[in-house]
Amino acid sequence: MVHDFHSHTFHSDGVLSPVELIRRAVTRGYKTIALTDHVGIGNCEDVVRQVARDCEHCNRYWDILAVPGVEITHVPARAIAEVAREARAAGARIVGVHGETLVEPVEPGTNLAAVKCRDVDFLAHPGILSEEEARLAAQNGVFIEVSARKGHCLGNGRTVVLARQYGFRLLLNSDAHEPGDLLTAEFQRQVAIGAGLREEELAAVLEENPLQLIGRLRLGAGQLA
Q: How many helices (H) and strands (E) does the chain have?
């Protein structure tokens, strides 16, 4: 059983349509997939509304929870709260922020703005997470991602260490852009262990934390069916 809150369709830099991505997730044994295409202020409303219609439709027919969301990406750090509000207003049920990964020139201050924002659910691939960011993530209930994606995974070890120290909750996501990026339950477990998680911590990260996040999502009746 896989819960995955970070993926991309052809509405940003993924290769699949929303419906095909959801279908392939079903065949991989997913229970939850969030479609979180890259957005800024200009494309946010259009992307969310299109993806939300496909998620709602697929949820009626297949045994999966497909959640419309966004990944706020490379926007000015001081604009993150504004774009997060825009995404919520457009119908995004989950809001992620593209963190300060070591392999892209993300503006410094992005991580901090994300963990301060009450409209943000998770910070993706934060790179070298600071102790202040860790403390605020725990305080504000912002989940931090352990990434299965090449390059973005380079900060996973520090993220796990700080999660133990400060108590913020972790999610392990694929950041899928194409079919081969989707996780299996066994590969998700291997990534978790490779990031430094202990056997006794796996259930929290792979099962309990996802269910907690699902429980607080702003889901309509059609998405819960």
A: 10, 7
Determine contact, residues 49/90, Cβ cutoff 8 Å: yes
- Rg of the chain (C-alpha set): 16
Does the predicted TM-score (pTM) go above 0.85?
Answer: yes
Instruction: Quote the tokens at residue 64.
Output: 């999966």
Task: Provide the pLDDT for residue 218.
Answer: 60
Q: What is the pLDDT of residue 138?
A: 98
> In the chain, how long is the greatest CA-to-CA distance?
44
Is 100 in contact with 74 (CB distance < 8 Å)?
no
Alpha helices, DSSP H only, in the chain? 18-27, 44-61, 80-90, 110-116, 131-140, 156-166, 185-194, 202-203, 209-216, 221-224
SS3 34: strand
List the domain boundaries for the chain: 2-224
Order of strands across the sheet with 65-72? Answer: 2-4, 30-39, 65-72, 94-98, 122-124, 143-147, 170-173
Q: List the chain residues with pLDDT less than 50.
A: 220-225
- Say if domain 2-224 classifies as CATH 3.20.20.140: yes
Task: Give residue 217's pLDDT.
Answer: 85
The candidate with the shortest Cα–Cα distance to 125, out of 140, 104, 139, is 104
What local confidence, expressed as pLDDT, does residue 11 receive? 97
